[in-house]
Design the sequence.
């Protein structure tokens, strides 16, 4: 196992290097931020001065080596606009995104796995069809539509929950819950649909296996058959979807963050792209890439725990 | 048209009440005033108001920093940090005294040396400042409380320059920051001013949240608050800027009272905001904004004055404004290069745009020798007002017979592309659309869009020695009447050449909860505001 982890960690180096080179070059192709930094009324001389100040007029390879040299020392650079370290900016924004991803996955799993198991157990009944209708709905309704509908219902009409914002769990747990409920429900909709469908398909497949028939023949109660024998053996694809879901959530919550005005990583990266704030974009993409690689590693390790037959 | 401008008398009434409060002892003013939660028009990322011309940085500057002079609601220059000014009989020496009791947010006293250095730094960057400093022999200090400005020859706009209302505003900073080269920006831990609010660096979340707290040591002037001038009495404990990426969420937050003040309500949402109980909508910027279609005077068809004149002749401001802001309530045609209703607004040379005529424009185009050359418009897609303007501009040019190519891109790319002087086939451009706040266009010197000194001018690089000579003449003229006459000649010459086309004057209202009062005219100022 230790060897596996070491190998996988070493394999992240070329992945991150490819990501770094690609992002760096693509950003340079899209132009530089000197004109944005200089402001609307800047003359060309002022824009050139800004370009020189930030080293944007140096050859690309030189800029790249400088950046990589800093990254290898753990320094992601500084925002061209605020002058603040990129690592600080990421640290300031990681909590809202991480908490939203966590609550979404916890809620989605808590709701979707039982839904999927029951749908598989009661395949071709109204229960199964209701779950499938919900799943189709979950895939079809855009996140922002659902978000606005929930805001209209729970915030504008009922005044039960706030429209927007984020409160840290450590600062105010009640405030955190009040602010996180609607974004979690909004974002969970599609994940509940996705996980429920995968769970249903996977459990249905295992329910047809010989060992399930054997378990039933031994007189095991149906709940035990479903959750101990069927679900455990169906867990690998479900876990894969959940793991990928977490990874997608970390980098893909920008719409939900915008609708509910949550100051997370999604908005940080979009704002940086709109301004061409290179160091932030580069730092965040590397961060996201590392998260993806790390999560995939954790999923692979979890496979071996759930299914002892899997060996690397 | 119905313009939702603030009643100036009402405002001054409120300001007078504020002035009464300003006269109270410091302890009495420190009563709790709550937090004003504000949706600003943009994200604050750059914190140095000298480093950029962004309006959001100017607004930040007004909270944290103070100015020697400032313009009141009648656009008259009044002393602010200055106790007064002595001008020598030959008009070459200005001795500006500082008020007693001024201090920086770190507790150290404001000195004349700090202020002289702040003026020098600003004068290296700002267009009006650069022009002022081309007349300045020395900018020094006499003791700790007198700034001494010596000119090489008389200049008529010294105080108007130092008391400039809009970007770049000559804000005063401590010596250690005023000595920064202009290429070095002030960082988040270095925002030390002497203004009515302090910047909370620990709470600064660029793109998300900015917090300002009342400066307990600020000594306001005794006069009523009036625009940027008068007593800057901070009634609020703190002002919190919260950035929202989505206008619908902005609307919802104002409706539920989660925010108190929405700086710029989009015209299409204004009726909804106005119809919400507990919320008001009002325009606090009577100068408004002026839409412009800027031509590249160096390259391609737009380098041909006849083509520029034909396009300008064809554009209909009424149609443009209707597209841009959606409601006649928020737009008004204006056929002067200076904002309508202000001192130098005039009608010289504007007949040909006041009544647009497509057929006549076609004749002008034919006479210009235009041969169907590709005409590249940098078409902004992420700023609704600009996007809407561009639709009408492009349609008009197509009907005129111009071979238009509208290249869609975000504003950051427009800023990048428009800096290029390349030929059209080599990434160059012919036109982009933007707007300026009226406060930046008040006279021929402050209006950078009128500069016509080639490389030193705004992008588009108008090169017109006649206009430049008249701008200098304006700067050196004494008396408003003489200045008005020169402004008319400048405008007449401008309309012969049309370095940009005017797209009308529009107004962006502010939405606020009905428990908020004392809002002054724009740019948004946060002193004098009370929240009950």
Sequence:
């Amino acid at each position: 196992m230790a060897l596996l982890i070491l190998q996988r960690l070493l394999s992240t180096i070329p992945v991150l290097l490819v990501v770094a080179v690609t992002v760096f070059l693509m950003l340079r192709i899209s132009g530089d931020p000197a004109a944005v930094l200089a402001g609307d009324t800047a003359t060309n001389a002022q824009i050139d001065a800004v370009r020189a100040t930030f080293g944007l007029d140096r050859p690309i390879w030189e800029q790249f080596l400088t950046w990589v040299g800093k990254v290898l020392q753990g320094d992601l650079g500084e925002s061209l606009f605020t002058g603040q370290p990129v690592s600080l900016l990421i640290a300031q924004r990681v909590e809202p995104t991480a908490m939203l991803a966590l609550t979404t996955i916890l809620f989605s799993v808590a709701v979707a796995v039982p839904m999927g198991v029951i749908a598989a157990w009661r395949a071709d009944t109204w229960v199964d069809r209701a779950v499938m209708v919900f799943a189709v709905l979950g895939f079809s309704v855009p996140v922002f539509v659902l978000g606005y509908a929930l805001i209209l219902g729970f915030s504008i009409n009922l005044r039960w929950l706030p429209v927007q914002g984020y409160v840290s769990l450590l600062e105010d747990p009640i405030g955190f819950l009040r602010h996180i409920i609607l974004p979690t429900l909004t974002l969970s909709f599609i994940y509940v649909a996705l996980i429920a469908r995968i769970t249903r398909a996977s459990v249905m497949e295992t329910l047809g296996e010989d060992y399930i028939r054997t378990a039933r023949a031994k007189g095991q109660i149906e709940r035990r058959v479903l959750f101990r024998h069927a679900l455990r053996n169906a867990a690998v694809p479900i876990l894969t979807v959940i793991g990928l879901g977490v990874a997608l959530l970390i980098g893909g919550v920008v719409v939900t963050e915008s609708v509910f005005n949550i100051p997370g990583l999604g908005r940080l990266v979009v704002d940086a792209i709109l301004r061409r704030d290179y160091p932030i974009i580069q730092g965040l993409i590397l961060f996201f890439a590392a998260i993806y690689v790390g999560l995939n590693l954790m999923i692979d390790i979890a496979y071996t725990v759930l299914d002892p037959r899997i060996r690397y | 048209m119905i313009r939702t401008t603030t009643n100036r008398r009402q405002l001054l009434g409120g300001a007078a009440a504020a002035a009464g409060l300003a006269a109270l002892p410091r302890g009495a003013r420190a009563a709790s005033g709550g937090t004003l939660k504000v949706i600003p028009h943009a994200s604050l990322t750059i914190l140095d108001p000298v480093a950029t011309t962004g309006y959001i940085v100017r607004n930040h500057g007004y909270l944290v920093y103070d100015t020697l002079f400032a313009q009141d609601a009648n656009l008259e220059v009044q002393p602010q940090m200055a106790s007064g000014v002595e001008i020598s009989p030959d008009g070459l020496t200005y001795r500006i005294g500082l008020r007693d009791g001024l201090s920086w947010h770190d507790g150290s006293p404001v000195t004349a040396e700090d202020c002289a250095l702040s003026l020098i730094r600003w004068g290296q960057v700002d267009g009006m400042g650069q022009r002022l400093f081309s007349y300045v022999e020395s900018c020094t200090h006499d003791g700790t409380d007198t700034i001494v400005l010596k000119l090489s020859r008389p200049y008529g706009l010294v105080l108007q320059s130092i008391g400039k209302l809009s970007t770049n505003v000559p804000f005063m900073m401590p010596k250690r920051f005023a000595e920064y080269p202009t290429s070095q920006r002030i960082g988040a831990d270095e925002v030390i001013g002497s203004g009515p609010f302090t910047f909370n660096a620990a709470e600064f979340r660029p793109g998300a949240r900015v917090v300002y707290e009342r400066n307990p040591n600020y000594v306001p002037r005794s006069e009523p608050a009036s625009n940027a001038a008068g007593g800057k009495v901070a009634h609020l404990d703190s002002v919190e800027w919260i950035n929202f990426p989505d206008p619908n969420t902005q609307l919802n937050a104002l409706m539920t009272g989660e925010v108190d003040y929405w700086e710029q309500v989009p015209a299409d949402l204004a009726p909804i905001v106005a119809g919400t109980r507990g919320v008001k909508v009002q325009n606090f910027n009577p100068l408004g904004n002026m839409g412009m279609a800027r031509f590249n005077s160096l390259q391609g068809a737009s380098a041909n004055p006849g083509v520029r004149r034909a396009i300008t002749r064809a554009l209909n401001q009424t149609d443009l404004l209707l597209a841009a802001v959606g409601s006649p309530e928020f737009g008004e045609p204006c056929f002067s290069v200076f904002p309508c209703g202000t001192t130098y607004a005039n009608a010289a040379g504007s007949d040909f745009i006041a009544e647009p005529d497509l057929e006549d424009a076609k004749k002008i185009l034919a006479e210009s020798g235009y041969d169907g050359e590709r005409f590249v418009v940098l078409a902004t897609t992420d700023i609704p007002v600009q996007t809407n303007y561009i639709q009408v501009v492009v349609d008009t040019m197509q009907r005129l017979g111009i071979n238009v190519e509208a290249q869609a891109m975000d504003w950051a790319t427009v800023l990048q592309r428009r800096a290029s002087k390349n030929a059209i086939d080599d990434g160059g451009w012919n036109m982009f659309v933007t707007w300026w706040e009226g406060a930046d266009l008040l006279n021929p010197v402050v209006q950078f869009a009128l500069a016509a000194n080639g490389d030193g001018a705004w992008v588009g690089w108008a090169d017109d020695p006649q206009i430049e000579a008249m701008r200098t003449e304006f700067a050196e003229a004494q008396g408003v009447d003489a200045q008005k006459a020169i402004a008319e000649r400048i405008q007449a010459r401008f309309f012969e050449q049309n370095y940009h086309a005017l797209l009308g004057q529009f107004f962006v209202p502010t939405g606020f909860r009905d428990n908020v009062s004392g809002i002054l005219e724009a740019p948004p100022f946060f002193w004098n505001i009370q929240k009950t």
Notes: The first strand of chain B starts at residue 35 and ends at 39. Residues 1-31 of chain B have pLDDT under 50 and may be disordered.
